[in-house]
Amino acid sequence: MDVYARNFIRVSLICLVLGLVMGLGMVMHPAMIAYRPVHVHLLLLGFMTNMVFGVGYHIIPRFQGYAVIPRGAATLHLYLSTVGLVLMIAGWLLGHGTGGRISAPPGFLLFLGSLAVMAGVGVFLVIIWRRLVPAQRKAV
């Protein structure tokens, strides 16, 4: 398995553990329900989506006859997605004290994080879209 696919799966598993711990915390301390957006994004964007990216980077190119994908682009995607998720989580955590309203600086963090995640998804779409065409095989 390529290093970038492995790293997406590692980030995915870390997000799974953090999301589950946060869910347990919300069960034990109901006041933590205010952090539900963090919990949901850790599980859906952090765990599920990164797992799809990691498995997708490993499987889809090989099904189409490509041995590898551009390592730099996949690494850029990993950084954009991970940093974006961290910025979004920071925005929600910092905005919690505003009575449910997101204040300007945390809202800006949410915006930057969302843009980074969207840019990462764009990189993924380009890489995978280009791999949906079967590779040309040389006649033996």
Give a verbal description of the structure:
The protein is mostly helical and 140 residues long. It has one domain (3-131). The protein has four helices and no strands. It has helices at 3-28, 36-63, 71-95, 104-131. The protein is elongated. The chain starts with a helix and ends in a 9-residue tail after the last helix. The model has no long low-confidence stretch (mean pLDDT 87).
**Whole-number mean pLDDT:** 87
> What form results from the Cα inertia axes?
elongated
Whole-number count of domains: 1
Question: Could you state the order of secondary-structure elements as H and E?
Answer: HHHH
- Low-confidence runs of at least 5 consecutive residues: none
Strand content: under 5%
Number of distinct beta strands: 0
Biggest sheet features? none
| Multimerization state | single chain
List the helices and strands and how they pair.
Elements: H1 3-28, H2 36-63, H3 71-95, H4 104-131
Helix pairs in contact: 1-2, 1-3, 2-3, 3-4
Entry keywords:
single chain, 140 residues, 0% strand
Quick structural overview:
The chain has helices spanning 3-28, 36-63, 71-95, 104-131.
